[in-house]
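Sample pair:
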Amino acid sequence: MSARALAALLALSVLACAFPARAAAPDPQTLNMDQAMALTLNANEQLQAARLAVVVAEFDYKSSIGPILPNLSANLSHTRNSVTAAHIVTNNENSSLGFTATVPLFAGGANLAAVRRKRIELRKAKVQYKLVESDTIAALRDAYAQLLFAQEAIRLSDEVVRRREENVQLLKQKYEAGRESKAALLEVEAALAVSKWEREKDQNALRLAQRRLNRVLVWPLNSEVRVEPLPPLPKPGSDPDWQKELAGHPTLVSDAYDLDIARETIAGAKAGFFPTSDLTGSWNKVGSTKWGLQDRNWQWTLGVRFPLFNGGRTLNDWRSAKTALSKLEVQKNDARDALYIAAEDSFLSWKESAAFMDVADTTLKASESRAWLVKSQYATGQTTYFEWRNVEEQLVSVQKQMLAARRDLILAHARFEKAMGRGAP
């Protein structure tokens, strides 16, 4: 190698050390919970519909203010007609330009009740958005946990297949050496076949779990998405004060708004028994030639209208509104109690799942240690095939139990968060 080539190679080596290669970017289809939550909040169709419902409620509230404000309009007209009498044609032109203003003075409280009702409906729409967000985030956590479980189940299936392939080789050696029966060899081969079948089943479950998460994320269903492990979940503490913790639950707040809306509906219906009054004023300039506005006039009118008879509609509307309020008041306590029970049930399930994790972890460590010991003993002829086989089967069962316990803990925590009405942190 020439000196120049050697110098160039040395320079490249120095540059490579000074500027190490950039690490490969993570797979864009691999998500952690924070990323999945941000995507869901941005793209989920149910959340978008709830946001639009808030916008609609805002416009309805602004529109309800209109009837209590003055109304001003401009009037412009030009009329031309022709009259023929005794073979004489007479053309007439009339023009008018004016303004009309109407000021509502009293409507029995109906307009103010409508404004208050629309304002409450706007607040309820915002609370309903929180409920939809809570349900959507709960669905995300459920789909995320199921996919995470499916991924770990695949890894466990691969490990079980590898371990049982080793077991088959061990039994073949023992069988060929005349130290084990043909039945034992056939049994471990059957166990290997079952493990491969279970791995294929786990792969199908993984595909379905990906579809469910993609549906929540509003991604194409066939997208190959994977998720990262979750950070440690918080530990459940002592029993909460449910009345205090659930006081601001979106469901209870929404129910309270329903009662307020019903009361304002009663006020609006009751207004039909009272007279209404408004003040109308107009100013006009008129003329008999085209846009020749020589004359002007103005007037104002104070109108008062007394309801006398409308077929009983006002009375029935008022009775219907009062009955609807009574119905909501009857249902209120039952809905609150059901919410308290659901929250406490989810909390107790979360505590049980968290406590079982310690049991599952201890059991797994014991099973792994025993499996390693018994396999070593079986390889050296210190224990029987049946004891070794039972220990191997127990290890697989305990490993699956541990995966299910992790999944159940995540799901139990997600259900508790939903029962408390919580959405994105």
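The chain has a mean pLDDT of 86.
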